Amino acid sequence: MNRPMITALTTIGIAQTLKIPINKAQTGKWEPSIFFETGGMPSSHSAGVSALATFVALDRGISSVDFALSTVFGLIVMYDAQGIRRQTGELTIKVNEMDQELEQLNGMHKQVTNQERTNQLKERLGHLPEEVLGGALLGLFTGTLSYLLTR
Asked: This protein's superkingdom (predicted)?
């Protein structure tokens, strides 16, 4: 059994599940479909890689190559989650707003044409820094708990 991988994947599932009640507390809306979406609190990306790195650190030691690999991989994933993917989400919000503005202009000026999309682009792509931190803390907890349960 590959305990580090199971720990990371289980932590991702826990993080995705936690997004539903956290979103309900923030917005008042119960949206179970959030389980299958990216973005939101906590970051499942951060949670998974942090759980993996934590388990490896406790099991193999911080001087091991395994820990170095999992940590560098994890830092890249977390940077990407709050950096590039977050910026993509922000850009998507602007594109959706432009589409709505074009629809309004079309109502005022019939010569303005806009091919209407049936669905808006998905805006929830990346993470705020606190969402990444929340995921990292969850991963630290679950990685430690999983290691302790194997002893």
From this structure: Bacteria
Contact 51, 7 (CB under 8 A): yes
In which residue are the tokens 């074009």 written? 102
Eight-class DSSP state of 119: S
Task: Determine contact, residues 50/135, Cβ cutoff 8 Å.
Answer: yes
* 3 state SS of 123: coil
Does the predicted model carry a pTM greater than 0.85? no
Cα-Cα-Cα-Cα dihedral sign, residues 20, 23, 27, 33: negative
User: How many angstroms separate the CA atoms of 41 and 26, rounded?
Assistant: 10
Tokens representing residue 109 in the block: 């000026």
For residues 138 and 15, is the Cβ–Cβ distance under 8 A? Answer: yes
Cis omega before residue 32 (within 30°)?
no
Total residues found in the chain within this entry: 151
Residue 116 has pLDDT above 70, yes or no: no
Quick one: pLDDT at residue 1? 82
Smallest CA-to-CA distance from 85 within 131, 48, 50, 117 is with 131
Compute φ and ψ for 31, nearest 5 degrees: -130, 85
Residue 101: half-sphere exposure toward Cβ, Cα within 13 Å: 6
